[in-house]
Give the backbone structure.
Amino acid sequence: SKKDSHSHGDARANPDPNTCLGVFGLSLYTTERDLREVFSRHGPLAGVNVVYDQRTGRSRGFAFVYFEHIADAKEAMERANGMELDGRRIRVDYSITKRAHTPTPGIYMGRPTHNGGGSSSSSGGGGGGGGRRRDSYYDRGYDRYDRYDEYDYRYSRRRSPSPYYSRYRSRSRSRSYSPRRY
DNA sequence: GTTGAGCGTT
């Protein structure tokens, strides 16, 4: 009787069924295309997102796969969890976050800063003069964007002109370029 | 060819 469907506490352990699957433990060389190939076997996909490191641009080793139907997501989750992909044993589960954190809003999303208002008191900033100051852009403002769950991933579908196919990539990769030396 | 714990930006 302790199970609240609300509690986020064990959300990582018991994510509710969702069309969004988190895929973890990926090889750094596994691409969205590879994931598409694997997961689309279980049903139509609405999107695939490999999470890349902002600095290096390389995969961070996990991704999110969006199905159009929960039933397909469920089947894919059960089937693909623990499977080997590109040499790594991947873990698949329902995502606990629904979508990428909202890209830089561009507008101040904090509470209206009343003087002395109980806002998150991020103090320290040494806020010089005016009472009007934005906390850091990245604070936690995007939390209130969670209602954008219904965001249309379909329009953001992009096609990759990549000539690579996973079965090619595994074997010999950039051997093609031979800077011929004389 | 870097391993790896891990829930998110272009």
Observations:
- The radius of gyration of chain A is 21 Å.
- The first strand of chain A starts at residue 20 and ends at 24.
- The longest helix of chain A spans residues 70-80.
- The mean pLDDT of chain A is 66.
